[in-house]
User: Fold this.
Amino acid sequence: MRFLLRRLGFYLIAFWACITLNFFLPRLMPGDPVSRMFAQVQTQMRPDQIAALRQLFGLTDKPVWQQYLDYIGNIFRGNMGISLSRFPTPVSSVISSEIGWTLLLGATSLVIAVVLGNLLGIMAAWRRGRFLDSVFPPLLVFVGSFPYFWLAMAALYLFGIVLGWFPLNHAFTDGVEASWSFSYVADVANHLVLPALTIVLVSIGGWMLGMRNTMIATTAEDYITMARAKGLRSGRIMFHYAARNAMLPSITSFGMSLGFVVGGALLTETVFAYPGIGYQLLNSVQALDYPLTQGIFLTITTAVLAANFLVDIIYVRLDPRVRVS
Amino acid sequence: MSISQSQRQTVTQGDDATPPSAKRSILARVTGGGLVHGLLTNKKALFGLTILFLFVLLAVLAPLLSPGNPSNFTADVSAAPSSDHWLGTTAKGQDVLALTLWGSRSSLSVGFTVGLIATFIGCLVGIASAYFGKVTDELLSLLTNIFLLIPGLPLLVVLAAFLPPGPATVVIVLVITGWAGSARVLRSQALSIRGKDFVAAAIVTGEKTWRIMFLEIMPNMASIVMSTLLGCVIYGIGAQAGLEFLGLGDTSSVSWGTNLYWANNDGAMMTGDWWVLIPSGLAIALIAFALAMINYAVDEVTNPRLRAEKKD
Assistant:
């Protein structure tokens, strides 16, 4: 319990740091970003909306500390301002309409990469020096060396343009109504294959190697020798004795890599024009839509912090040593 | 994480058990003799070093190999590889080989600059945190963990969006997002060395703090500093390419990232100009692979348990 409270305290401080960063970044910008922004939408804006924006960017006469308090107050009321590029939609509804796609893409590829990578790692360590152990790691490291977006482009070119097996962009065919029908789900899945595949390809090597190395260390432990001496079946020792314990570091990296999923998806989403929040973040940056940029950044960080706290809770369940100390 | 780290510690403990008088020889063994000899006899390391050397050579010789401005347009538009243009030309008629050669200068220099600065900050924070302990450690660890947790790429995009564009910004942004991982690894290693007798002896003899940090503690973790540096350089090269691919870097310069950005912008994929896409991406992959190979070799040389075994 003390462990969890400490962690919670840490995440709260991290959250505060992100809000603060978000508050000060636009104020560090050179020139006059607000007039550039206003130029796009001025005619459509109501005076009170302009005032709200000026407040967001520190152009009011209030002292900085008061602006800061106002900003934090707004965040906690879920008020992140109004998007400029999609005027007059509030930032929060732009985000909520798109975060689902990022979660779908991220969760699918992360789960596949983790399960497959860890399994391969377990096998490679168990049969050291054999085929799986000597061929896969260097191959996967090589594949993982390619820039994320480049691999996505290559997959898009090969499977999308040349072979025409998969759609080139978007998350579903234009004009298709969202429903729980089989055809819609199949359509979404079809659009998901290429982006998810590239993320899995790039990230699987790290999981495999990490698992392999801890697994090798674990198989050298005395209780494994003991289990062998007892004459337990090899598969039982592999999964129930060795892999179970070698799994713990993977769970920590799982938490860390959630950030990579949301973040890394940004590049994949850009290449495939997949309508997630990563793609939207980039669009908002290019459209000088600063309220949306800030809102998305804050949402992503909050999601990552929350997910990491969840992983911590699970970790306490799994590793009794944490509970005791 | 914890298991592999404790494994490392048992390996390094062998070195640290030697009395402080033998410090010079440790230094020689870790930084000079042992590691270098180990690397030069390691296949992975030799492979990596050769590729790295070739790339640096090509980058240095770029003005001789392909004189003139690589961005100049020619009349040959979207030409496939031929004897005139070995790697073909872009949709604007630029020679792809020249772009790739010149691009290596920016990509390698930014990558190595970012790697060096990030590793330096990581060393500073990690060792200071382990050396001073207590409140300093708490605060620095907190800072490190926050930076580790904030998702890198979105932070990269947001920072690049809000800071004035230019090559210096790219380096600064990449360092800000890249130092934390190395600080964490180096801290845990420095922590185990901090408890050794020779550090206590150095404190008692009244050595200056920075001397203890950088001349007593750091040489004893040279191999980890080195693998951190390699990791940071890989990160630097990849992240610069990613940033520039998104159009958030310095789009006027020639680098592997901007080459791919323009290729994508000019619709190279749609028109089937695959030769524009391949060289820069392959170059990044090769250099990252080479560095990763050297990194694994460092790991193998210093951590005997990871060396390949014939049979279990």
